[in-house]
Every structure is written in structure tokens, then in C-alpha cells.
Amino acid sequence: MNPYLPQRYQVLGFTRESPDTFTLTVNMRSKPAPGQFVQVSVPGVGEAPISICSDSRSHIKLNIREIGNVTKALSKKRKGDALWIRGPYGKGYPMKELEGKNLILIGGGCGVAPLKGVIDFIEHHRSRYRDIRLFLGYRSPDEILFKKELKEWRKKYQLEVTIDQNQHGAFCYDAKVGFVTEAIKKAPLDPHASVAFLCGPPVMMKASIDLLKQKGFGERQIFVSAERLMYCALGVCCHCMIRGKFTCVDGPVFRYDEIGAYAHD
Amino acid sequence: MRLYRLEKKRFAEFIGRLMLDAEVIAPVKKDVVRFLPIAHPEEVHLEKNAFFPLKEYFFPQNQTLFQFDGKSFMAQVPKPKKRVFFGVRRCDLTAIRHQDIAFGEAGDPYYEAMRKSSLLIGYHCPKAPSPYCFCGSLPQIEYFDLMFFDQQTHFLIETGSGEGEKAVEEHAEVFVPAETPKPDTKIPGADRLHVGNIAPLYDHPDWKKGVDLCLSCGACTALCPTCYCFEIHDELSTADLSAGKRSRSWSSCQLPGFTRVAGDHVFRKEREHRFKHRIYHQLEYFKEKHGVPLCVGCGRCIEACPTRIDFVKLLNGMKA
User: Fold this and answer.
1) ipTM score here?
2) Which of B177, B208, B228 is the last residue of a domain?
3) In terms of domains, do B203 and B86 share one?
4) Contact B49, B33 (CB under 8 A)
């Protein structure tokens, strides 16, 4: 079996999430762990690693930001169109190991996508986890992702949505203006029997981790989903290395003590 | 393991025999010494090691992985004919072993196909062939089909595999079983790296001495026999825009684009981080995963460096 060979799938649906992000539903049957990713191909354009933002065996959902050549090409895909995928790859969040814990999910921008896979997983196995808190930060109201799902999440979980700035004045989402870190700072977070999952831009992750540590969280209670340039997704092309770890096979989800603050390495 | 003897006057005959049913690739003196397919046994050059390593024969600089036509991807797994690599030094043999580990772990069918049906015949350095060599400071694992030890008038040949034994049997006329003990495998003048564990040196201020000279040109990684990183890109056919090919090519962790993600964030933006990453991957990270350092001590990265950054000296200085 050629591990580089992508398989052909069909788009089941396209949803516009924000001016530059969209979600594709694809008829790929798999058993992904929350936090895992796939390599999506558009022949002639290339491949891009995209995290899975759903928890289903019958299909996968991919939340994608139009930022590179492949993701721009993917934004033109509609129901019935073909695309090529290989995977799922990597290690996801250790959901089994963390049963019985309070889960704190901290996401920034399109980093909320892999966490949505976690939220879907929690919904399907709600009794296995205790309190769920979500901190989701965006730059502006336009960029808020999963607007439909947010209403449901608000009913079920303790949810804080923040926006860095509100350029429109009034808006209909219950979001606070400010950085997500301000919401984390104000929240009464008990490190006992809790773990935090983070995914977002490096600056936001660093600031959030510093805050969690101040609140008494140990590095073993913090899980981060790392983003790196990737080609092979098989642990050989070396682009995704964080010191000696390969994001594609040892991650993308790491317990913080595994990679430490090696943002540059 | 068995030992045989080959008289030097019959060496050309042996190479000629190999050439009858395989392509023989050996160090040849051109502008520099290079591994090239030979047309005559006399072309084999054993004085100096090849400037370029052997890796392009197994992991080409550019390689097509797939052709696609808008409907499917068709794998382009190569089928090389039988190849004999002669005159491969211990460092380069160990490097092949390390690439075998890296590509083998990923189950890479392209690399596997290129490695298949290749016979590795080593040449044991009588002394360090370059002032930059330091293979003696690193573990050298026996990884060959046959190994040639230069003994002035003759070669002693050690077999290292079933394939090697078979090759001796096939050419039994030129070989004589040898009763001598196995020659010493120590290579004089090749143990100049004195630091075993570089982990505690990560924040040492002396890294700056190397980093300040580095031009981020990537010559070190291109000439390294072990560096195996690559990138994958698609190309469209101009005749049919739904068709084209997906291929891979060498890349270099010394170039800033190596860690650039969409949105233009570069993780190892500073030269210092890229410089250290190479040295740590070579001496530390690969060892964490596979038990042996990736680096084999051939010294090519130092010889090829336009500003002659000698990381061995740099590390030795940090320890002192």
C-alpha cells in the first residue's frame, strides 16, 4: 500500500462559516480521534493538512481557512465535487485517559476547528466528563466560527466568546470585546481534576498557557494542538519537527511537557 | 562473516565481472570525485572519498511520485535494474542504514524500490581521507554486503550478508579464502569530535560563533549523506490542465521557508534556530527515536560550507 496515495471522495456539503472560512462535509468513512487530521489534495495544486472538526464514522467535516493555494482551491468545491484525501493521521486528544475530568477548551480563530471535533465527541459521550468550559476567541464578529452550533453549546456548557475588536458596533452574538486571555483570567478555574486543551495562534497559546500556569495548572494538565508545515504526514519529510518530535506522527496534539515552550524549535 | 583475499592485479577483472550483469557505480575522479556509473574498471578512484554522497541513487533530488489525470493518481514507483555500488566508505554505508531506518519507518515505497537489488561493496579507509572526518567519534555499524580492506598488494574482503557471500561464490575464481584475523576497523585520524552528549549545550553562548558565519545556503544539507528531508509539489501539464504530476524534491532545514505555514508564520525564523536544529537532529533527535545519532562523521558539511563552519570544533570548544 502506497502511503502517499490519496483516495477519491465526494463533497456532501459546503457551509460558509465566515468571510474566509468554510466547512466541507466529505463522504469519508473513518474512525478519527478528536484532534487528528487528514491530508487533502487538489490535483495540480497540492496537498494541505486539515484537522477534522467532526466526530462521526460516516463522514468527516473539515473547517478550512482560505489562506494558501490548496485551501483557496478547496473553497470552490461544492456538493458532488471530488476531492482526494489520505489519513487520518497523528495523535489526537487522549479522550479515554481523561475520562472523569473537567475539560477546559481554549481556542483562537481557526484553531477552534479541531476543538469542535472534541466538543462533538463530548456530546456523544457526555457522561464520561464533568464540567466543560469553552473559551473561544476571535478577531472580529465576522470571524466567529460555527455560529449555529454556538447556540447549542451555550445551553450545554459554560461558554465565553471574545472578540478582539468590534468594528461593527452592535452584533447579535453574546461575545465580549477583549482577548480570550482576559476571559480566562477572570474565570474561576480550579486546576484540581481539570485539564485544558488549547489550539490557536502561537501568541494566544503562549499567553493562555502562562495564565493557566499562574492558576496552578501543571504542564501535564495542558494539551496543545500544534500547527506546522507538513508534506508527508508519515514522519519522514522533517518539516513539522518540534525539536525531536514530529507533529504529524507524535502530535499534532502534545501534552505540554512533551514539547515545552519550544515554539521556535 | 568470512574473509577472502583478492590480489590487486585481479581487481580490474573482478570489477569487469561485476559489470557483466549489473550497473557498477563507483567513485570516479571528474571535476571532483563523484559516484558515477563506470564504463571501465580503471575509472574506480579510491584515494579520496566522493565529494557528493551516494544518497541521490536511492533518494533522487527530484522524483515523480504520481501522475494524475483528473480522475485518479497513478503511482510512479521506479524499477531500477541491478546496481552494484563499489568503494562506499564506512560513513556512507552507515548513512544508508540511517536513511533505510527513516524511510523504512514511513513505509516509503519509492525509497524501498530504489534500494532493492543493490549490492553495497564497501572500501575501508586506510586513514581518514579528509581533515574533516570524524566517523571514529560516532558509532559505525557494520552495514555492507562486502567490505574491502586495502592491504598494499591485495584486498582482504569481509562478507557482511548472504548477498555478499553469493557475490563471492559467483566470482569464486578471483577470490581465495583468507585465514588471517579480521583487520582493525579503527580509522586513524578520524576521531576529532570529543562531545558525546550535546543535550546540555543547547543554550551555550558559543553557538553564536557558528551562527554568525552561517549564510543559510543549505550546502551542508545537500551534501549530507543522511539528510533526508523533502517537500512535495504538484505540476500541471500545459497540454491538459486536469493532468500533471506530483513529485518530491530535497529541501533544507537551513532555509527559512522550511517551517513557513500558510499565513506566513515561520517557526524557525532565526538562523540560530535553524543552525541548531540541524546539529541537534543529526546528533540528538534521531538518537532519541532510533538509538543512534543520524550523523556519520563524513565531514562533507564542513568541507562544503562556504564559510567553513566546523561544528565539530565548535562543540569541542563548548565542552572545554
Assistant:
1) 0.92
2) B177
3) no
4) yes
Q: Which of A45, A65, A202 sits opposite B234 (nearest CB)?
A: A45
Q: Is the CB of B234 less than 8 angstroms away from the CB of A2?
A: no
B163-205: per-residue pLDDT in tens? Answer: 999 999 999 999 999 988 888 888 988 999 999 899 999 999 9
Judge whether A228 is closer than 8 Å to chain B, CB to CB: yes
Q: How confident is the model over B17-27, as a mean pLDDT? A: 96
Q: Which residue of A has its CA nearest to B282?
A: A244
Spell out which residues of chain A touch residue B231, defining contact as CB-CB under 8 Å: 231, 237, 239
Q: Is the domain covering A7-89 a CATH 2.40.30.10 domain?
A: yes
Domain count, chain B: 2
pLDDT band at A265 (very low <50, low <70, confident <90, very high): low
Spatial distance between the Cα atoms of A115 and A184, rounded to a whole number of angstroms: 17
- What was the pLDDT predicted at A165? 81
User: In chain A, which residues have their Cβ closer than 8 Å to the Cβ of B284?
Assistant: 244
- On whether both B30 and B158 belong to a single domain, the answer is yes
Whether B184 is covered by a domain: the verdict is no
Q: Which amino acid is at A219?
A: E
Is residue A85 within 8 angstroms of chain B, CB to CB?
no
What contacts B282, CB < 8 A, 6 or more positions away? B224, B226, B293, B294, B295
Domain residue extents for chain A: 7-89, 102-259
d(CA B76, CA B215): 36
Structural domain of B313: 199-319
From chain A, the residues in CB contact with B269 under 8 A are 264
Quote the minimal CA–CA distance from A235 to chain B in Å.
Answer: 6
Please check whether residues B140 and B214 belong to one and the same domain.
Answer: no
Mean pLDDT of B258-275: 90
d(Cα A243, Cα A143) in Å, to the nearest integer?
33
Number of Cβ pairs closer than 8 Å across A and B?
113
Phi, then psi, of A70 in degrees rounded to 5 = -70, -45
β-pairing verdict for A60-65 and A245-246: unpaired
Whole-prediction pTM: 0.93
Give the rounded percent of residues in chain B with a pLDDT score beyond 70: 100
| Domain A102-259 top-level CATH class | alpha beta
Q: Which pLDDT tens digit goes with each residue over A167-196?
A: 665 555 677 888 999 899 998 999 999 999
